[in-house]
Amino acid sequence: MPRKLIGITCETTLKAGLESARQALPRPYVWAIEKAGGVPILLPATTAIENAERYLSVLDGLLLSGGVDVDPACYGEEPHPELGRVDSDRDAIEIPLAQLALAQDMPIFAICRGIQVLNVAMGGTLYQDLPTQKPSHLQHQQRHDGVPRDTATHTIRIEAASRLAEIVGDTCMATNSFHHQALKAVAQGLVVTAHAEDGIIEGVESTAHRYVLGVQFHPEETAFVDEKSMRLFEAFVTAL
Fold this sequence. Notes:
- By secondary structure, the protein is an alpha/beta fold.
- The protein contains eight helices and 13 strands.
- The chain has helices spanning 27-36, 51-57, 88-103, 113-121, 130-133, 163-168, 219-222, 227-238; strands spanning 5-9, 11-13, 22-24, 39-43, 61-64, 108-111, 126-127, 154-158, 172-175, 182-183, 191-196, 201-205, 212-215.
- α1 crosses α8, α2 (51-57) packs across α3 and α3 crosses α4 (113-121).
- The radius of gyration is 17 Å and the shape is globular.
């Protein structure tokens, strides 16, 4: 049987010294999908919205990857003073891409920014700036402390009856943390399956679709040192 094709959304990078922006993706996403048995296909942001449907016509699954903040205009809010950099081109393609994938019942795995895009695509909202809107003793941006990306910094509690718990084989999991925003009002159709110790939502899934799962952490960064993280990619590829 041919290996399944998995589309992974790219981010727009703006680096000093470059004459123009670049479409890019951190390598761990590609490596994790390959190790799980899938074929990664990179999906650049495009201003032609009709390309979203064409993308999906050749894919078996969709991975919504991490990145910068989601523009609050996408969920009807004014920008918070501490809103980070947004990528309007990416928002413009990823949200309809997610909506089309949901309508087609295509398996979706959403990571970090991806879980936020999924929530917004289904009608939910976000905390635009966690430090001011939901202060916590937890550091949700471990890069500020210089902690490597493949290192876990806090644990999450997972609902026992969830698909997430079934996949990782536990109701507790140590995770890394690299996010400035998080889910606030959860979209109708999504079930919350995991929380951090401070109540921040760390996992959601849909019970109305064949396979829709989102996590707020970055398992692609820990997949090669943590069995539970790798299982998330294996389960996704198996579902295709």
